[in-house]
Write a structure and sequence with these properties.
heterotrimer; A mainly beta (349); B alpha/beta (219); C alpha+beta (785); B: 219 residues; alpha/beta; Rossmann fold; six-stranded mixed β-sheet; 7 helices; 36% helix; C: 785 residues; alpha+beta; 4 domains; ten-stranded mixed β-sheet; eight-stranded mixed β-sheet; elongated
Chain lengths: 349, 219, 785
């Protein structure tokens, strides 16, 4: 028995870890709770909020090679706090987890990193903006005066893949919900949630078959909270879609005793419209057997008020992030009343 | 002169059904140089009587006088001393000491009694026809030869009393007769009182006196 | 039906049956007990290996034994996957512990699993894990500890931050475990260590386990002597029954099968009982074995036994194999017995001079093999093979030599009873020979092992006195405290001798290089077993190094040779010093040279020479404010070392006693089963005027005489055994060679024990003969046999 098995046996008596990182924590004791009238400030809020339980820097990219082949890439840094504070050295209660995903039409790569705050192994600082764990990083390359997230350099490596990208934002930051206060259930659980959905991306994928130059579009989500979900909510289906006409749609449904939906309609110039609960309808069209479970990888998303019907098709249905915290995350093609590309994330299956 | 006298010997053995009387008041006397045959059915108590006479067993009642000493009144060590020097024993199955040579067996009891006389022993061996076998071991001898060793061993200590229990019972008739004659001869020559238990009327007939034991009494 | 007829024999011979079962049970028990001990220890090494070295992961280490914590984040930032470890020794109360601090998030194989909220938080906040036995030893630990048998005994597993705090190593780490490929080139100032401590441990302790196994095998063999004699005797006694059954038409095959079945039945019963006994035995011995392994090798073995089905099956298998081996001869003879074999009361054991001659021939052959092994053999296995051959040869020679001695004695004897005594003893020798061989082996093993242990103890105590001259030793918390301590204490005492060392690989083996200050303490006292002239002057002038005996013997390097030291290249060897109790290789260079070779190495301990230990201690405690735990005085150190030593051989002593007991049981079994046969031999003497008391006394005297003669034979065999143990086995197993010293008082004691064992074995048959009266003897006269 090694340390891993030992600690698995001793510490992981419950799937609390997975819950913690999936944002399904149920207890906010001592942690700060999002409030509706707080105004987000930048660059301050680009950095970590240790007094909140859970936080992420979540970048997804839909990419194409020179030959038109579809790819997708994900770079995520999660923060989970054991206590609502930051301390120096090993005493830090902040635990960091990095996820990197890379999807080709026939293969899906995933890697993870763990680390502790306080000793310089992982963290996220607002200015100059840098979120990192080990050699994985998301570093601002924005000129002074511009928003720190308007230009980024991003890289990660896994055991059998690596990538690096340069991202340039073609539009402003978008605040979801009520100026960034995003309600997550009918009972009122909420998080702070903003995005930068306007990146153009250039970069290199290092695949086992060799390097591939790619271009495409990227979408960064920033979200933090302490008790984002209601206790009966077991998972979510989330999409970020960039339509060919320049509009963006973010939408999700939280599955529980009742379905709770929300979304944001973003015009090409960045003005956002919040979609209330029930405005969007998510209908699974077909499942695939992924990692031994049935996952609805094809969806129909209806926005009846706008007569919009989108049908999503995964680039690779097997985009399972088979990691300590596991979920489905991969690039999609969008058809229906509109066409485009996007990213689909499904948890709790 | 009476060398061996048994007076009113009584003996019973314990069994599941209670005490079984074996000897019920036997008295007899044997003089020096006299040869007395004791006959009787199997189980009539002949061997028990002989064992009592030798001090190997104690009677329930009665006296055993060996050369005038009351065997029954002696402790174990005293009885053993009497057996060593005064009584000679010859058994049906020879009972030689297997680890000792014929010579050592012949001399053993005499030396034990402290009366070893090498010349007498050699003479005895010669008369018993054992001279050439002295260095052998008992198991290398025939039955007749072994019994001759046993007789020689008993007589080498010049015992006052010689007790013999079916001494020829394990030998064929010719051999047995020869051994028997030799034993009689030697006992008479030494003036030893010889009490002989036998089945054989023929052998008994050659003795000075015949006693018949029946159901624990002398007939 | 046939089986029932066969088994009826045992109903009438219960003692014989008991002996057979007891022999097989004891053999199985001793063997499987030893196996359980070995398995337990090996399991513990595997645990230790897994925890300490993460399944053999390599690490990055600094020559000084410590590195700045920043190196960790720096390497991670470069994509080098490492996990920091802080390791140190900690004293809690009277218990010295290994403190292992890990970083669970980066620990190998994504120990991310540990990220669970509550417990991980407690772990980060200072909670730890320890083996239940460690917890029991600690009583009231100063930190919250949870039990876990995945942690080696004597180790506390805590978070790295907790370990740093407890060890005073804030900002420092001991090493970096590599969880990915090693970086090329290696980071400045770091070395790659393919340390797999568990494997080393297994290698080092192999010899110890081989030792135990050899003892187990010896005990098993002795047990088989009993079984063999009981089976053989039962066969002889049932010859008539076999003949009757055959005449009644029972086929030979069925009869043989029935006999084999009977044997298997007994093997099953005795094997199960033996397993139970073996388990109890192992459980009783394990604490000492564990203490030995901990003391001698630092191997963390828990003292409580676990049950393993594989072990039970193996033990049962041994019981069956043993029964088959012991019964093979009987079965073979049954197979070859003519239907109407005469019912002669022939002795079952080899009785003739021809068998003796075969024994002598076998003994000479084995003796030759032993000599060849002694001259040509190499390695631990050859050493044990040599021992086995020599012991077997000696055992085979025992009956012929005893016969020779008895024959001589009977020739010299004058009195008839004495003459008979010798002659009869000699005649009965073949029947007793197996038991006497077992006794000889047990006695020789006792003498040999006892002599080895006593020789070792004598040498070891001398050596301790020489090595532990410093009045006290101080263990500073860290390098900084070492410096202030030295400055503080130096003016108050005669000398301060700092101890610095770096871990190093010497001639391919794990070890360490030590610094030695040029001081009279060492010049006058440090024991050397080989040296060049002016060794201390030349050491002081950096002309070479001292190495320990283990290194010298393993590598065959002696003064005049040279050895490669890390950073220094080939260095002449100036001397070799004995270093008992240390499994690792060692080299010593003078302090100044060491400091140039390994700059920045922290001082681990300070040896203090003072004529006022009490005052020095008080000054350290009161003025300097050192904790009492940091001070070890000379007496404590000696006591600790001796305690380790004593426990090292406790197990050997226990097995010795057990082996002797088995031999005594073998004798008892033989004497009891022979007592019926003896009646026939004793009856004529009784008839001729020996009393029963005399006869019983003679029986006892004979037993004592045989024990004495066997002891006399065992003495040279035992000394040979001791010599082999000291000069071959110890050198191979531990790396040191010791002078043979003889301890006649111990032999006298052993002779006493052997006599008592023999008396105990002979007492019952003799008592039965004496108290049983003439009845049994009379029956010899009364019935035809």
């Amino acid at each position: 028995m090694n340390v891993k098995a030992l600690l698995l046996a001793l510490c992981l008596a419950s799937p609390a870890l997975a819950q913690g990182f999936a944002g399904l924590g149920t207890d906010a004791s001592g942690f700060a709770v999002p409030e509706q009238d707080r105004t987000l400030e930048f660059p301050r809020d680009h950095g970590a909020h240790p007094q909140y339980r859970i936080e992420w820097w979540y970048l997804t990219m839909t990419l194409q090679g020179a030959d038109g082949r579809d790819y997708g890439a994900q770079w995520t840094l999660f923060r989970s706090a054991l206590a609502p504070e930051e301390r120096e050295g090993w005493a830090s209660p902040q635990v960091w987890m990095g996820h990197a995903g890379l999807t080709t039409p026939d293969t899906h790569f995933a890697a993870e990193r763990f680390g502790r705050g306080g000793v310089g192994q992982a963290g996220a600082q607002a200015a100059p903006f840098r979120a990192y764990i080990d050699d994985w990083h998301m570093t601002s390359t924005a000129p002074s005066g511009a928003d720190a997230l308007s230009a980024l350099s991003v890289a990660a490596t896994g055991p059998d893949f690596a990538y690096s990208f340069d991202l340039t934002a073609q539009g402003p930051l978008v605040l979801h919900g009520d100026k960034g206060y995003s309600v997550k259930s009918a009972a009122g659980q909420a998080s702070y949630y903003y995005s930068q959905p306007f990146y153009t991306v250039t970069g290199t994928l290092d695949l086992p078959t060799g390097p591939v130059e790619v271009t495409g579009q990227g979408w960064l989500d920033r979200e933090w909270s302490s008790q984002p979900l209601a206790s009966d909510q077991e998972g979510w289906d989330w999409v970020s879609i960039t339509l060919d006409d320049g509009h963006r749609l973010m939408g999700f449904q939280l599955r529980g005793a009742d379905i709770f939906t929300a979304g944001t309609w973003i015009t090409p110039d960045g003005s956002a419209t919040s979609l209330p609960d029930g405005a969007l309808q998510f209908t699974p069209l077909g499942t695939a057997t992924v990692a031994g479970r049935e996952v609805p990888v094809r969806w129909q998303i209806d926005w009846p008020a706008r007569d919009m019907r989108l049908v999503t098709e995964p680039v690779n249905p097997q985009a399972w992030m088979d990691l300590t915290v596991s979920y489905w995350e991969g690039p999609i093609r969008v058809n229906g009343t509109h066409t485009g590309r996007g990213y689909l994330e499904m948890t709790g299956y | 002169m009476t060398r061996l006298a048994l007076e009113d010997i009584r003996k019973s053995f314990a069994s599941a059904e209670g005490a079984v009387p074996v000897l019920q008041g036997v008295s007899l006397a044997v003089d020096g140089g006299e040869v007395v045959a004791l006959t009787g059915e199997s189980g009539s108590g002949k061997s028990t009587l002989l064992h009592i006479a030798a001090g190997l067993e104690a009677p329930d009642a009665g006296r055993v006088l060996v050369a005038g000493q009351d065997m029954a009144s002696l402790p174990d060590a005293g009885r053993a001393r009497l057996r060593r020097g005064t009584v000679g024993l010859v058994f049906q199955q020879f009972n030689l000491v297997p680890s000792l040579s014929v010579g050592a067996n012949l001399a053993f009891q005499a030396r034990l009694a402290g009366v070893h006389d090498p010349a007498f022993c050699a003479d005895l061996a010669a008369r018993l026809g054992l001279t050439e076998y002295l260095r052998r071991y008992p198991e290398q001898l025939s039955g007749g030869q072994q019994q001759r060793v046993a007789i020689g061993r008993a007589l080498a200590a010049k015992p006052k009393v010689l007790l013999a229990d079916e001494p020829t019972g394990n030998l064929d008739e010719a051999t047995g007769d020869a051994v028997f004659v030799l034993m009689l001869e030697l006992a008479r020559a030494q003036g030893t009182a010889l009490l002989l238990v036998t089945h054989s009327a023929r052998l008994a007939g050659q003795c000075d006196r015949n006693l018949h034991l029946r159901a624990g009494r002398l007939a | 039906m046939t089986l029932a007829a066969l088994l009826s024999h045992w109903m009438r011979n219960k003692v014989q049956l008991a002996m057979l079962l007891a022999g097989l049970m004891l053999a199985t028990a001793l063997w499987s007990g030893v196996q359980a001990l070995n398995a337990q220890a090996r399991g513990a090494y595997a645990t230790a290996a897994a925890l300490m070295s993460e399944d053999g992961a390599a690490s990055l280490v600094a020559p000084s034994g410590q590195m700045d914590q920043a190196v960790f984040a720096q390497l991670r930032g470069q994509g080098v996957l490492v996990s920091p470890v802080v390791e140190g020794r900690l004293r809690l109360g009277d218990t010295r512990l290994t403190l292992l601090g890990i970083e669970p998030l980066t620990a190998p194989q994504g120990t991310a699993a540990a990220l669970a909220d509550g417990d991980l938080q407690a772990f980060f906040a200072g909670a730890g894990f320890a083996h239940p036995e460690t917890l029991a030893d600690l009583g009231d630990p100063p930190l919250p500890l949870s039990p876990s048998s995945a942690v080696p005994v004597g180790t506390l597993l805590v978070d790295i931050g907790t370990a740093q705090r407890l060890l005073g190593m804030e900002g420092q780490i001991s090493r970096l475990l590599l969880t990915g490929p090693a970086p090329r080139p290696l980071p400045e100032g770091l070395q790659l260590a393919q340390a797999s401590e568990g494997a080393e441990l297994a290698g080092l302790t192999d010899s110890f386990h081989l030792n135990l196994t050899a003892f187990g095998a010896l005990a098993f063999a002795v047990g088989l002597f009993i079984v063999h004699s009981a089976v053989g005797l039962a066969f002889e006694q049932r010859r008539g029954l076999f003949r009757t059954l055959r005449s009644l038409g029972v086929p030979l095959r069925a009869l043989t099968l029935a006999l084999a079945l009977e044997l298997a039945l007994m093997a099953l019963v005795a094997g199960l009982a033996g397993l139970a006994l073996g388990y109890v035995l192992a459980a009783a011995l394990l604490p000492d074995v564990a203490a030995t392994l901990r003391g001698l090798y630092g191997a963390p073995v828990p003292g409580s036994l676990q049950f393993s089905p594989a072990w039970a099956l193996a033990g049962l298998g041994m019981a069956f194999a043993g029964a088959a081996l012991a019964g093979a001869q009987a079965l073979w003879r049954l197979w070859h017995m003519p239907v109407l074999a005469p019912a002669q009361p022939r002795a079952w054991a080899m009785a003739t001079g021809r068998a003796m001659r075969w024994q002598v021939a076998g003994a000479l052959g084995l003796g030759g093999l032993a000599v060849a092994l002694a001259l040509l053999g190499d390695g631990l296995f050859a050493g044990f093979a040599l021992l086995a051959a020599a012991l077997l040869a000696a055992a085979l020679l025992t009956p012929p030599l005893l016969a020779l001695g008895l024959r001589g004695a009977s020739r010299l004897a004058q009195a008839p009873v004495v003459q008979w005594f010798w002659a009869d003893s000699r005649q009965n020798l073949p029947r007793l020979s197996l038991a006497l061989m077992a006794l000889m082996l047990a006695l020789a093993a006792n003498i040999g092992v006892g002599t080895m242990v006593a020789s070792f103890r004598a040498t070891f105590i001398d050596w301790l006195d020489q090595r532990l001259v410093a009045e006290m030793t101080i263990t500073p918390r860290d390098a900084a405290e070492a410096q202030t301590l030295e400055a503080f204490i130096a003016p108050r005492v005669q000398a301060v001798l700092p101890l610095r060392r770096v871990d190093a690989t010497l001639v391919g083996q794990p070890g360490a290089v030590y610094a030695m200050r040029d001081h009279a303490t060492f010049r006058d006292n440090w024991p050397l077993i080989a040296q060049v002239p002016n060794v201390w002057d030349r050491l002081a002038t950096e002309e070479g190094a001292l190495i320990n005996e283990q290194l010298a013997r393993r590598a065959g390097l002696w003064p005049g040779d040279s050895i490669a030291l890390p950073g220094a290249g080939d260095v002449p060897i100036l001397g070799v010093y004995p270093d008992y109790g240390n499994p690792l290789t060692q080299a010593i260079v003078t302090e100044s040279w060491f400091d140039r070779l390994f700059p920045g190495t922290p001082t681990r301990q300070l040896a203090i020479r003072t004529d006022n230990p009490a005052g020095t201690r008080a000054a350290l405690l009161d003025e300097f404010g050192l904790s009492a735990q940091a001070i070890t005085d000379q007496a404590q150190a000696k006591q600790l070392s001796l305690a380790i030593f004593e426990r090292t051989f406790l197990i050997t002593g226990a097995l010795n006693v057990l082996t002797l007991s088995v031999a005594a049981l073998a004798l008892f079994a033989t004497l009891v089963t022979l007592s019926g046969l003896r009646l026939v031999q004793l009856a004529p003497l009784w008839a001729m005027g020996l009393t029963l008391r005399q006869l019983a006394g003679l029986e006892l005297a004979r037993a004592l005489m045989l024990a004495g003669l066997t002891m006399v034979l065992a003495l040279p065999v035992g000394l040979m055994l001791a010599q082999v143990l000291l000069a071959v086995i110890n050198v191979q197993a531990f790396g040191w060679r010791l002078p043979l010293q003889v301890f006649p008082a111990d032999w006298a004691q052993l002779a006493l024990w052997a006599g008592l064992a023999m008396l105990a074995a002979a007492a019952w048959p003799a008592w039965r003969l004496w108290r049983g009266g003439g009845g049994p003897l009379l029956r010899v006269f009364a019935y035809e046999r």
